[in-house]
Amino acid sequence: NLEGYFYLGYIKFMMNDYASSEDYYKRGLQIDPEDERILNNLAETQRLAGKHLDAVETLRALVNITPEPLVWFRIGNLYVDVSYTYEAIDAFENALELDEDFERAHYRLGLILFDNGYFREAIPHLEYVAQRHPEDDLINRRLTTAYLRTNQLDQAIANYRAQIQRDPQNVTAYLNLAGSYRTLERNSEALSTLNDLRAIQPNNPTVYVRLSDVKLAMNNLNGAEQDANRAISLDDTLYEPYMLLSQIFQVRGYNKYEEFIALEEQARNAYGREADRLVSERDSARNEANQLFTTARQHLDRAENKTGEPSVLRDIAARKQLLNQLIEETRRTFFD
Asked: What span, in angstroms and rounded, lies between the C-alpha atoms of 260 and 189?
């Protein structure tokens, strides 16, 4: 009977036997093609079995019975998984037609539109999320870039300034204003804006993340490191401070690596005690560079453990690949 097939499908699902689970659920649907419990579970079974498009069809049958924004959201995510970009956009838009305040749909739609170059269309969705989560660095950076790509950044800066004048406690306006300055590489103005915000929000970890980023851009490595560590002390769940610490140590490693290369060249043309001194300094610079690059990679490992955002994970993977090359390069010299 229907209940029997439902529970058999569920038991097989819990045993990770997705093929048998799917078979039992489909037998149940032969009895009642509109059983929402079975359709819902069948879609999840198909997703975990890697049958994403089958799961889409199952969820489409479900949403035809009961139009729910969450079902359209799940459809959108499935399309994203198989790189059906335009279908995913349609699905997220359908979710928002049913619930205009569906925050996760705004988030995913804003990012997918941005990543595919639809900057103007992405802006309202990124704005929606940024207004509710001013600490979300990923969203705010993309919003600022979208303004820049659509020639709206100057107007956005004017709007943020006006917001701060009306409400000097508006944290979001400060962060957005600083982010806009940062995008335009007006780093001194970004730093001033963030210092103003720190005066009214001294324990806000996002402020220190942004301060660290600006100081890194201004080559104030010690200040950037101090602010990143301050952010961690306030909220150890954030990935951004560890990304910044990785960049800081990577820059320091580059500096030592350049010193190593210069000493390598000098040692080639030196003799006697001078050669011995240069070789010793060369090896010391090489070892320091290696340690700095290794520390940078360790911070990336920590960042990776604190985020599940695909675009951030891709960035981390690319950075790790480069750091691994640098670590390997500084393990040896021309004379090894």
From this structure: 36
Judged by phi (left if over 0) then psi (alpha if -120 to 50, else beta), residue 56 lies in alpha
CB atoms within 10 A of CB 7: 12
pLDDT at 144: 85
Q: How far apart are CA 319 and CA 147, in angstroms?
A: 27
Quick: pLDDT tens for 98-127.
999 999 999 999 999 999 999 999 999 999
Burial environment of residue 128 by CB neighbours within 10 A (0 to 12, 13 to 18, 19 or more): buried
Does residue 333 register a pLDDT over 60? Answer: no
Lowest mean pLDDT among 131-135, 177-181, 215-219, 308-312: 131-135
Residue 294 pLDDT greater than 90, yes or no: yes
What the block records as the tokens of 217 is 């851009």
The angle at the Cα of 60, spanning 55 to 64, to the nearest 5 degrees, equals 150
Cα 336 to Cα 333: distance, rounded to the nearest angstrom: 5
Distance CA 291, CA 276 (A): 23
Answering whether pTM is above 0.90, one says no
| Cβ pair 176, 134 in contact under 8 A | yes
Q: What is the rounded distance in angstroms from the CA atom of residue 42 to the CA atom of residue 21?
A: 8
Q: Residue 234's closest CA among 199, 206, 197?
A: 206
Residue 218 — very low, low, confident or very high, per pLDDT cuts 50/70/90? very high
With b meaning 16 or more CB within 10 Å and e meaning fewer, what string describes 8-43?
Answer: bbbebbeeebbeebbbbbebbbeeeeebeebbbbbb
